């Protein structure tokens, strides 16, 4: 059986959003999905829909695993997918890029960054809106995450496909 997925810039794409909370991943994912007619999979929305929260580590891992499985299935059908995850580690981004390439699709990485004080300003504003007001992110959480996040460098970014013109 031959690979029938179109690897051209106009073919199916795995589009990854990468960044810390407050960086603008969901806003960018919504924009890309609308512009390209892509399926958007946003982990936080699925967790809430299933009665969980981003703070539930076990549910978080399960939902992420299932959304990744679903994304691959959608890609096999020739449709583009925007994965709205944080993708904090290079290993995770490398694994997804390799798996998508094995399906014959292009892979984009949209890294969104902002200074810590701007991230906190956005998070603090979001904390006052549903559903975040019930389980807000604390500044101490953001400070911890800043140390754990592996920002993609120029070398890693060069491994991904550019967005189509």
Counting structural domains, the number is: 1
Report the radius of gyration as a whole number of Å.
Answer: 16 Å
CATH hierarchy: architecture: 3-Layer(aba) Sandwich
Helix content: 40-55%
Total strand segments: 4
User: How are the strands ordered across the major sheet?
Assistant: 2-3-1-4
Fold-level CATH name: Rossmann fold
Description of the structure:
Strands 2-3-1-4 form a four-stranded parallel beta sheet, sandwiched between helices. The chain has seven helices and four strands, in the order βαβααβαβααα. 47% of the residues lie in helices and 12% in strands. The chain has helices at residues 25-36, 43-49, 57-76, 90-102, 116-126, 139-148, 154-157; strands at residues 13-18, 39-42, 81-84, 106-111. The two termini are 31 Å apart. The longest helix is centred in the middle third of the chain and has 20 residues, at 57-76. The protein is α/β, with parallel strands linked by helices and 165 residues long. It has one domain: 3-Layer(aba) Sandwich (Rossmann fold), CATH 3.40.50.
Explain the layout of strands and helices.
Elements: E1 13-18, H1 25-36, E2 39-42, H2 43-49, H3 57-76, E3 81-84, H4 90-102, E4 106-111, H5 116-126, H6 139-148, H7 154-157
Parallel strand pairs: 1-3, 1-4, 2-3
